[in-house]
Amino acid sequence: MTSFLFAMIIAGTPLLFATLGEMLTEKSGNLNLGVEGMMLIGAVAGFGMGFYTGSGIIAILGAAVAGALGALIYAFLTVSLRANQVVSGLALTIFGTGIASFVGTLFIGQKMPDRVIDSFAKVKIPLLSDLPFIGPILFRHDYFVYIGYIMAICLGIYFYKTRFGLNLIAISENPSAADASGIHVNLYKYIHILFGGALCGMAGAYLSVVDVPQWQDNITAGRGWIAIALVIFVKWNPIMALFGAYLFGGLSIIGFRLQHLSISQNLLDVLPYAVTIIVLILSSIRKSKEDAPPKGLGVPYFREDR
Amino acid sequence: MRMVKRTDMTSKKAAVIRILSIIFAFLLTSIFIGALGHNPMNVYLSMVEGAFGSAHRIRDTLTITIPLVVTSIGIMIAFKMKFWNIGAEGQIIVGALAASYLALNYNHLPKMVLLPAMFLAGFIGGGLWALIPAFFKVQFGTNETIFTLMMNYVALKWVTYLQYGPWKDPGSLGFPKIANFMDSAIMPKLFGVHIGWVIAIFLVIIIAIMMNYSKAGYEIAVVGESMDTAKYAGMNVKKVILSALFISGGIAGIVGMMQASAVNQTLSTQVAAGYGYTAIITAWLSGLKAVIIIPVSLLFAIMIKGGSFIQTAYQIPQSAAGILQSVILFFVIGSEFFIQYKLVRNSVMEKEVA
Residue A182 contacts by C-beta under 8 Å, 6 or more apart in sequence? Predict the structure, then answer.
């Protein structure tokens, strides 16, 4: 049981990063369906950086920058050129899939150098790791996992306790009112979309650099889409994202654990997708005011139309 | 500088802007190809050669065009309503699954009975698969984009399960594949290409007429423009969405039937082969106009077939074709801005106001 919960955290970490990234983007009023694409760009950039430099940190940073660059295309199209957000996001996913597969041909069959793998060795956090039950599950991971915890908490504080977080609510609920009150709407959108992209890039890198660490085509296998659904599931709340992401991490690995139960692996593989659908339906049924998406989500903002 | 909504845009000018944006996309990709150390012009020419260089290649290119055209037509109907159906891939798979069930179990039937039955089964299978997310959309407002996409994975895993389990061909010596279809379940050819091309042209004409000249097409357009207007006009919005999605998914299901019957001659996890995703691009690039879908799909078929050719000729990975496609899409999406707005210098504006 403990080992399953431990593995669940690892499997949930890329989902957590991607969920937080998409949450940042949606909080600024933009729906970016390019998560899968940005994750793949990040995955291949992270793998390449780690492979050539032998440095874990450069691998992560490279993935973040690459993810942000992908998001920049989307931001330019949707914020500056006011293009349709759904189609722009889909285009970004197709682009990212192509780029990752193209660049990835350099790395087929390659393994991450040991130096990089060692830099993501498991670290026991003193005291916390000795806590009964939760210690071995939560506090004996690589530092990427810990960055995930910290990131979720920081974003929670950012959204709910800072002036910027308040401004974001204004922007995503009613951009023209926010603009009238002196908030630079487009700048906010750019910054949050780019940071969101960086987190998605890191999500991809966790897969290619730490979790697998070997190059595979289409390494994300639909996790980016699950992350978009998770944002709805956790009601745009970064702390809830921790639970949502690890829960879905668990679902994605449960197949291996239940192999002895003579249920076909292929049927168990349906679980994360089927549960995502159920979650989507449930969150649309229990439509209360708090759970509703930001009002301005997906609607392009035209200052001139104000 | 500030932006002003254009009032002087003609459809001719808009077409010029769109074509220019495609040319810019090719120019940008040329720089990229040049950086890889190839002459871009030669690469493009050999893509065309790879797609049209011999009778055999032309047949291949057309065989790729057929599913693109038909799937795009299906997607177009949903997109017209701003129902973001990205589940065509899954609808293709389930359509193929339903048709294959008949092909594998009723192969003693005569061809003239079996093929139409498979066609109908494919349509219903794909239609029902699209109807599930549509139902929840109209009932609870469930996000259809993610729903339809998740349905793709469910469909794929379902076929994987069948291929490795209950439907595995006992005669395949343990190799996980489903039995090949008997001749009675395989679509005939006309002029060297399976008759799917006739079906494709036929569907384009029917759907073009339906969208432009029928009540159903008008209702779909109004729902897409504004849900409120549609309700105010007394339309049954739910019914419009549900029936349109059944047709949208059903058409994708027909693709599944055709690919399984004529191209693969069996059911496998490869039956949709990404056409469901590529057709999203082609449908959008066609400006959601049925007739334009044919040339755009042909262009993409050239890129797909030519892309696999340059892989062997230049060792450029086939995914380069995917990148080229998405760059074209980026440029065309971006170009819409210049169709709807123009940039005006502030001083000029003030003079006009004065």
Answer: none
